[in-house]
């Protein structure tokens, strides 16, 4: 199921595989790759992940997650990492990806715009959603990017 990820590199960053996680049908979790976002010298600047497939959890939680450490923000590293992840998603025959963020996360919104994503909606999280139950989150901005 999991593919080689050594191609996830460009002239500025590389995605260094930290782990893969099998899906869990009972919890409706999809298989996922987890990466460190590193510069060419291997210095870790953030993290990202790709969840392979689509279900209700990825509609609200997204296929891609990312976090750039504060000292490295402002250089589009999240967007550049996502562009690399798009290539991996295509190898899994995914036609589109969902990326979500909190309505007040302006940096993540800018990343979605940088990538050419379009906003589907700002949705209220279902009452039984883990992000609502565990983190107290109420809404998500839901973006989609077509890969084909």
Features:
single chain; 148 residues; alpha+beta; four-stranded antiparallel sheet; three-stranded antiparallel sheet; 4 helices; 25% helix
Task: Give the topology, please.
Elements: E1 13-21, E2 32-39, E3 44-51, H1 56-61, E4 64-68, H2 77-91, E5 96-101, H3 106-115, E6 118-124, H4 130-135, E7 139-146
Antiparallel strand pairs: 1-2, 2-3, 3-4, 5-7, 6-7
Task: Tell me about this structure.
The model has no long low-confidence stretch (mean pLDDT 96). The chain has helices at residues 56-61, 77-91, 106-115, 130-135, and strands at 13-21, 32-39, 44-51, 64-68, 96-101, 118-124, 139-146. Strand 2 (32-39) and strand 3 form a beta hairpin. It is α+β, with helices and mostly antiparallel strands. It is built from 4 helices and 7 strands. The strands form 2 sheets. A 4-stranded antiparallel sheet has the order 1-2-3-4, covered by helices on one side.
């Amino acid at each position: 199921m999991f593919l080689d990820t050594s191609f996830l590199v460009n002239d500025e960053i590389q995605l260094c595989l930290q782990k893969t996680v099998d899906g869990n049908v009972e919890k409706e979790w999809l298989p996922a790759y987890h990466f460190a976002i590193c510069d060419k010298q291997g210095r870790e600047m953030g993290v990202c992940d790709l969840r392979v497939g689509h279900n209700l959890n990825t509609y609200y939680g997204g296929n891609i997650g990312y976090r750039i450490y504060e000292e490295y923000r402002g250089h589009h590293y999240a967007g550049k990492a996502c562009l690399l992840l798009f290539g991996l998603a295509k190898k899994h025959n995914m036609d589109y990806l969902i990326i979500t963020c909190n309505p007040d996360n302006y940096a993540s919104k800018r990343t979605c715009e940088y990538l050419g994503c379009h906003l589907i909606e700002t949705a209220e999280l279902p009452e039984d959603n883990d992000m609502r139950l565990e983190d107290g989150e109420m809404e998500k901005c839901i973006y989609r990017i077509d890969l084909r």
